[in-house]
Amino acid sequence: MIVKIIVSTLLIAGSAIAAIAAVSLPGASNGADAAVSIPAPASNVPAAGGDQIAVLAGGCFWGMEAVFEHVDGVRSVTSGYAGGSADDATYSRVSSERTGHAEAIRIVYDPSEVSYGRLLRIYFSVAHDPTQVDRQGPDTGPSYRSAIFPQSTRQRQVAQAYIAQLGRSGQFSRPIATRIESGRFYRAEDYHQNFMRRNPRHPYILAHDVAKVRDLREAFPGDWRAASAD
Fold first, then answer.
1. Does 188 fall in a domain?
2. How far is CA 179 from CA 17, 36, 213, in A?
3. 56-96: per-residue pLDDT in tens?
4. Under 8 Å between Cβ of 111 and 45
5. Total domains present in the chain
6. Catalytic site residue 49?
7. Within a 10 A sphere around the Cβ of 104, how many other Cβ atoms?
8. Which of 1, 33, 104, 139 can pair with 57 through a Cys bridge, CB separation 3.0 to 4.6 Å?
9. Domain span at residue 64?
10. In a domain, 80, yes or no
């Protein structure tokens, strides 16, 4: 959490030198974890008419957003906070780790082009490490937890079944820590939106998120879209 707060403060201040120091703190990971090859989910959400919504949490929303806005069939990706209350849904309060929120993204997607199960496969494979508890890389605290916020009963069933399936698969060296949770999604501040697209050379992005986007392109070439979603 300390690393992320420092980097965010430096973004506002415009100090790249100190940002590099922040991502090099002892214990920080200077690179994203490699993609994990995993099977597709055995069950899926039916492709009902019209766009659908998925809400996923997996560490810093900058990288999560950057991955999913390059998935074909995704209409838009919004960074924000899931769980907790509207009154506390601000970066400064969420970063205190006392509000119950998780940094998350809201994905609007066309189920005729990409399924909910496919989004989950990308989520578990390249977007984050689902075995880390209350952290991702250098960022620590409950707001960086791995969590899925189903938007329907069927999404909940598919997510629960997939977590169990992956647990049996032996593809991960540690137990999957992803939680299935309930709670509303709240949009984050404007400076967090489209962060990687607007700040492609930011030290945090280079250290932790560029590799995730590359892994998406290499591991899921059929789902890759060069142009970002809106």
1. yes
2. 36, 19, 24
3. 999 999 999 999 999 999 999 999 999 999 999 999 999 99
4. yes
5. 1
6. no
7. 30
8. 104
9. 2-219
10. yes
Q: Would you give the end-to-end CA distance of the chain in angstroms?
A: 28
- pLDDT (tens digit, 9 = 90+) per residue, 139-178? 999 999 999 999 999 999 999 999 999 999 999 999 999 9
Q: From the candidates 60, 66, 67, 94, which is the catalytic residue?
A: 60
Region of 134 (left: φ > 0; alpha: ψ -120 to 50; beta: rest) is left
Both tokens of residue 158?
């598919």
Residue 78: strand pairing partners:
106
- Looking up residue 190, the CATH number of its domain turns out to be 3.30.1060.10
- Does residue 25 belong to any structural domain of this protein? yes
Residue 171 domain flag: yes
Q: Which phi and psi (to 5°) does residue 207 adopt?
A: -75, -35
One-letter amino acid for residue 96 of the chain = S
CA distance 115 to 122: 11
**What are the tokens at 89?**
């849904």
pTM: 0.87
